[in-house]
């Protein structure tokens, strides 16, 4: 394996990559937002793309009336099949009294060939009577399915959190095409229509029983496979999502475990009816969805925040956990359940999100402030960058669609300050 590293951006502002799907389908462009810190979505106003060959930069979207309170944009990712990106967009009326928040954001798409023309994907409706297919809060970390048709996301409900006496906790949802949702607009700018139909996909319990499979919150999901996975009976499940769910052990201690949601290819009309919730009840999960628990660990999933990722065939769900030395490593488990397998044996803990290569043979991640690639079959890891700790690497390492490039973020200091820049590693196998 031969490695060539290139610094791709130089501007005196942030260039924040999302945790996956950063490359355009033809690998010509990388998409990012202009945060200089992961916490700054609310005060960030633009989405850009950078050419992977020339390093030329194009702005493709900028918010209107951006302030420190919002609207804010961030966490942009490319569709795997077309030149469309999706990103978080705060609610347009954001101000000091209604700032950007977890329950005040939505998914916006941009065709990079038609910049500055936002397409609102998930409808939002926070006033009764609520609308099936519209949500009542904020969606986040949108992830395209392998065919580029569906989107998954995490969700916080504004109605339950702000207007109801009942608490609401983060969960996982899905958007599907073919069911455009119309919502009446009003002067508040809180409500808007959407091009896709949205629903909650993970079943939560308001009061999870200790020692049970009941979930308190659901988070940090990933689509299983490019086209699903093969069940134990050798039939095929075309669409499925793996997610982390917080449960409680017999002593009442919370821990994260892995769960799988199996989705139908087509939803029945009855399954999508009456799911919008009320002012006192959250949106409901369509009854066509099945959910099951995969892992039963002693201490739960331990390590830095990360999203679940799978090999392209869907047969290995990757997740981070501590090994018997207490070092955070990459592990894998089948979507059909069974035992977990340790996939990496690095000396220093994996620092954050990881991704599998398009052929499923390798995983890339940050460890000891550098990029590592692990051969999944052998468990052998190779350090592919060589940097000291003066220039901090953060976030995820993402693969190009051809598998011949990876990209990641690193802070670089110059005379004007310290800024998050994008680096590209070209690989010759």
Automatic annotation (TrEMBL):
Alphabetical list of Pfam families matching this protein: DPPIV_N, DUF3748
Signal peptide start-end: none
Alphabetized InterPro entries for the sequence: 6-blade_b-propeller_TolB-like, DUF3748, Peptidase_S9B_N
Domain Dipeptidylpeptidase IV N-terminal stretches: 352-395
Gene3D superfamilies: TolB, C-terminal domain (2.120.10.30)
Taxonomic superkingdom: Bacteria
Annotated protein name in UniProt: DUF3748 domain-containing protein
């Amino acid at each position: 394996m031969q490695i060539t590293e290139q610094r791709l951006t130089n501007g005196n502002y942030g260039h924040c990559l999302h945790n996956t799907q950063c490359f355009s389908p033809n690998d010509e462009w990388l998409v990012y937002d202009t945060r200089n810190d992961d916490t700054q979505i609310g005060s960030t106003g633009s989405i850009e793309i950078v050419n992977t060959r020339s390093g030329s930069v194009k702005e493709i979207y900028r918010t209107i009336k951006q302030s420190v309170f919002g609207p804010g944009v961030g966490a942009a990712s490319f569709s795997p099949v077309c030149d469309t990106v999706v990103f978080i967009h705060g609610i347009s009326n954001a101000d000091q009294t209604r700032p950007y928040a977890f329950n005040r954001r939505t998914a916006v798409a941009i065709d990079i060939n038609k910049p500055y023309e936002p397409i609102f994907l998930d409808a939002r409706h926070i006033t009764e009577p609520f609308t099936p297919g519209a949500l009542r809060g904020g969606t986040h970390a949108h992830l395209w399915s392998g065919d580029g048709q569906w989107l998954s996301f995490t969700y916080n409900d504004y109605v339950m959190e702000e207007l109801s006496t009942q608490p609401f906790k983060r969960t996982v949802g899905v958007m599907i095409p073919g069911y455009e949702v119309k919502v009446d607009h009003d002067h508040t700018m809180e409500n808007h229509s959407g091009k896709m139909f949205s629903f909650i996909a993970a079943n939560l319990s308001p009061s999870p029983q200790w020692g049970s499979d009941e979930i308190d919150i659901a988070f940090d999901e990933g689509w299983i496979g490019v086209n699903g996975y093969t069940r134990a009976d050798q039939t095929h499940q075309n669409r499925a999502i793996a997610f982390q769910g917080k449960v409680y052990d017999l002593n009442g201690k919370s821990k994260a475990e892995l769960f799988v949601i199996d989705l139908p290819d087509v939803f029945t009309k009855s399954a999508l009816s009456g799911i919008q919730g009320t002012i006192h009840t959250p949106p409901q999960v369509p009854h066509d969805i099945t959910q099951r628990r995969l892992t039963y660990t002693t201490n739960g999933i331990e390590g830095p925040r990360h999203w679940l990722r799978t090999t392209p065939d869907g047969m290995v769900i990757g997740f981070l956990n501590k090994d018997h030395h207490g070092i955070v490593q990459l592990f894998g488990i089948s979507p059909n359940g069974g035992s977990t397998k340790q996939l990496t044996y690095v000396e220093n803990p994996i620092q954050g999100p990881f991704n599998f290569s398009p052929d499923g043979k390798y995983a890339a991640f940050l460890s000891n402030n550098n990029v590592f690639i692990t051969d999944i079959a052998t468990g052998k890891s190779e350090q592919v960058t060589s940097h000291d700790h003066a220039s901090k690497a953060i976030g995820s390492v993402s693969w190009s669609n051809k598998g011949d490039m990876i990209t990641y973020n690193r802070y670089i200091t110059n005379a004007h300050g310290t800024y998050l820049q994008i680096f590209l590693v070209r690989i010759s196998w």
